[in-house]
Give the backbone structure.
Amino acid sequence: MEAFQHLLTGFGHALSLEYLAYAFVGCTLGTLVGVLPGLGPAAGTAILIPLTFKLDPTGAIIMLAAIYYGAMYGGTITSVLINVPGEAASVITCIDGHAMAKQGRGGTALGIAAIGSFIGGIVATIALVVVAPPLARLGLLFGPPEFFALMVLGLSLVTGLAGRSLLAALLMTIIGLVLAMIGIDPVRGAPRFTFGVPELYDGVGFIPVVMGLFGISEILLMAESPAREVIKTKLTGLLPSREEWRSSLRAIWRGTGIGFALGLIPGIGSIIPTFMAYIAEKRLSKTPERFGQGAIEGVAAPETANNAYANAALIPFFTLGIPSSPTIAVLMGAFIINGLTPGPFLFQERPDLVWTVIASLFIGNVILLILNLPLVGLWARLLHIPYQYLCTGVLLFCVLGAYSLQQSVFDVWLMIVFGVIGYFFRKLDLPLAPLVLGLILGPFIEKSMRTSLEMSGGDFSIFATRPLCVTLLVAAVVVLAAAALRLVPARVREAESV
Amino acid sequence: MKSASRLIVGMFALIAAAPAFAGKHDFPNKPLRMMIAFAAGGSTDIGARIVASIAEKDFKQPIVVVNRGGAGGQVGWTELSRQRADGYSIGFINLPATNTVVLDPERKAIFKIEDFVPIINQVLDPGVVYVRADSPYKTMKDLIEAARKSPNTIRTATTGILSDDHLAILMVEESAPGSAFRIVHLAGGADQQRELLAGNIDVAFDNVGGWTPRVRAKEFRALAVLDPQRSKFLPDVPTMRELGYPKVVSNSTRGIAGPKGIPAPVVKHLETVFKKAMESPEHLEKLEAAGLTVRIMVGEEYAKYYRETHEKARHYTEWAKKRPHR
């Protein structure tokens, strides 16, 4: 019950006018990021980090977290109304959501998505409150060798599950790890692969890279795609009928369970839970033929799973410091910029911050429900903004954001270069997530491995004699072997490459 | 879009703050830029922002604090050394870290130690040796004896390669012949505290700052202070000099410097204003609250300290480079 007390204190802080305002701004921006096609949560969060520089760390994290889960809500609107996912996790929602919109039931689809997202988000956050403190205590079991093994496992999960081809995913992971080598050697202090460029001494900044890979490349892709037709559905009747309620409610609970469980596994990504939830509903349904023709469960389940996943994925992040998706990795960058290291020690050292942020997750979910139910028509109108203005606006924001990271033009170039690279990678159907995770986790993997070796006096057996470490490393090998032997269902892998 | 316009305004403000020509008699007639080679929120940054907020009232010009962190300070110092020497661009140097970056050939630093003119020192954070409260090493003597009896087994953490704490371990080994520690380079005090608690390291060499609350809470024990005098934050902890090792003196100092070639009257003006600011009760109170020990050194005194620290750091850096890794 200690957690409950902490949470109440957290609510006390989070309900202050200042933090409420940050949560509100974050939710609004997040929804915006979700609504605008192309600008996904990873790029959106990265672009908006500079906005939080002036805030205190708690305010900054509240706002960025709100952008993160807000984007998960917003993506639905685009999926339903123009049959294009606002962000990747809403891909599956297009199928039945758009069908419903064509039948004039777009309002209901959006309504049930918002309600399901709310329930999924709240349940996962309650679980976070219950599970996090004991997990954080377990964190002390993680010394450098265990952290090394955990990061390797996370990376192998991302690699094993990403994309159609394991080879392509491995290639991208290695590119990420090689990029992570650039800069000052974390132990010996010697510059590596910097070619005398002082800006590279600190390594390739992953925020400009993420902005380029996900943001700029998307703008390039948008520029070559034709304009899309927005369905002018009457957005009335947001609340489902009684019968629709009955079928949706089960879907919502199942979606919550699936999303939450998968959120605990680092590296799953936000798309798999939505696919699993959709498939589960279709299999369990007595009338599977309705799916694809506007079945409300086909919207309720994946949208719920999506938000349950997003909130549950914060559990390994808060308790162990593992970023399980590129977006959370960007969030991790925001923590580091604010001088905070996510992980078990954060609960001990900054309980005020952690619990205020967790309380704000509850508040944010309420704010999002309000933003999305009555105001959904307003968001839908945004879709009428012509692409050329949208692209230019986003581009301007990216350039300003990259520059303001550390007032360096170099970062702007870095972003542009990776934007072009990302464009070609996407054309070649190469998954970007392993590259980003490799770049972000690379320094941690290297540092913890070398610290472990310093601890053992150079003896590699330290990785084989600590039980937890061995278990994690074996799990990593099993994941890669399973992927190599194609034991992971092809459907799942295909979904992840979207 | 409001935020975007704010960003643009901010950009223009920065451009306006960039150094132009400095008049001789009317210094300063535009904002000063103070560069910190570490991220915002670190202890260098905290101290710098406090003194900047006080001194800017006297300068009658704002002081823009710019954080250029990275590579253990090397990125920020490289940039500071290349600024125009007009007194408008100043920054913090951290001794002996600034020295070891120059001294370690592997770092390939493109600035030299003569590229900076030291102006005034603000903080001296003495080195301290910490263990977990239930550690078998009750005193520094226990630790040194154990390091002699079974050399290269006691896992001893620094806060980074060639940090003042790394050099301090070498000083102990030098003053207590036969002792040898197994050196583990961690990223900073927070990491050291975690690994100490988890039992992954046995000893941590760090400074006073950041540890005092948890020493008072009896989670950790301080074995010795590596300064000629005891620390007011740890009044019960003996100094190495008291324990019979007068040569083991290690600390981290933070002070203001500029690129070489700043006109003498401008340096004088900077010294005067910053000295007044650092001696003010507001400054002393705020730094005490932040757990930082103020030690003001101005002009020739600081310049001498800068040179001496460099020679001392040279000795231990060369040794660190030759010492086998375990």
Remarks:
- The first strand of chain B starts at residue 32 and ends at 36.
- Residues 11-24 of chain B have pLDDT under 50 and may be disordered.
- The domain at 32-326 of chain B is CATH 3.40.190.150 (D-Maltodextrin-Binding Protein; domain 2).
